[in-house]
Structures are given as structure tokens and as C-alpha cells.
Design brief:
Order of helices and strands: HHHHH
Largest sheet: none
Length: 155
């Protein structure tokens, strides 16, 4: 039986979507970092720098696995799409995006609580109500203006 083309287009929607950490290809980004001299921009051993980068990315992926369930589903979708855009993928970028999105949500939820009210309204010409009075400072009298030093006669 041949399925109508319209049904075939929507078939991918029936596939289960994994809620695990995505498998990213970090080879390309690590190769680029290594070729540019590594994290210090001075290292010349490309193979060693690439290995260091791959090890770092794996450690960050392991951290993502531990924290994955704590991130909002919308953030996971957005950040995964963002970190795979442009061809170079990075677990470092993915984790950073997720942490920033989480922190913004926490800040926004904290903004819903009312801020403490100021003690008293201030106008443009008044000092703050809780300001401590400051005593005037006496300035020493100005020294009399001295005559400019005489210039030697240049002839």
C-alpha cells in the first residue's frame, strides 16, 4: 500500500522524542580550537589540544546528564537548537545556554514579589528622608595670590 504524500510528511511526528541529553558532534569545534592554538592560543600540539577539548566536552556532557531533568523543556529545546546551529556543536555552549535561561527564569519569578516601598517620596529639590545630616566643612582661607616668578632676561 502506498501512503498518500501528505501522510508521509507527518510521519516523523509519530516518532518518539528522547528527553535525554542530545548527542552532539564536538569534533569540529575541538579541531578548530586546537588549530587556533588551544585555549591559550599558544599551544602548537594540535592533537593534544584537540584531545583536551574533547575530554572537557565529555566532562561537561556528563554534568549535563546529571542536571538535564532540572531544566525546563522549552529551554532544552531552544538551547539544543541554538547550540547545533551553524554546524559546530558544543556541550559547553548548551550548558551555558541552559544555565542562563534557568537563571533568568529565577530572576523573573523573584521580580513578581513586591519590592519594599521607599521611606518617603523624594522631589528633585529634597534630600532623601533617611539621609544623615552632614556638618559644613570649614575651608581654610585662600592664600593671597603670589606674583608670578620673574623670568630671566633673555637677550
Amino acid at each position: 500500500m502506498i501512503l498518500p504524500p501528505a501522510l508521509m510528511l507527518g510521519a516523523h511526528l509519530l516518532l518518539p522524542i528522547s528527553d535525554g541529553v542530545p548527542k552532539l558532534n564536538v569534533e569540529q569545534v575541538c579541531q578548530g580550537i586546537a588549530q587556533q592554538g588551544g585555549v591559550s592560543f599558544h599551544d602548537t600540539d594540535v592533537a593534544e589540544e584537540k584531545k583536551n577539548c574533547l575530554d572537557s566536552e565529555q566532562a561537561i556532557r556528563d554534568e549535563l546528564v546529571k542536571q538535564w531533568s532540572s531544566f525546563a523543556s522549552d529551554d532544552k529545546t531552544h538551547c539544543t537548537n541554538e547550540s547545533t546551529m551553524g554546524g559546530e556543536s558544543s556541550y559547553t555552549e548548551l550548558l551555558t545556554c541552559l544555565e542562563m535561561a534557568r537563571d533568568v527564569r529565577e530572576l523573573q519569578s523573584g521580580a513578581d514579589t513586591p519590592a519594599p516601598k521607599p521611606a518617603a517620596p523624594m522631589s528633585a529639590h529634597s534630600a532623601p528622608a533617611a539621609a544623615t545630616p552632614v556638618a559644613p566643612v570649614a575651608m581654610p582661607p585662600a592664600a593671597p595670590a603670589a606674583a608670578p616668578p620673574a623670568q630671566p632676561n633673555q637677550q
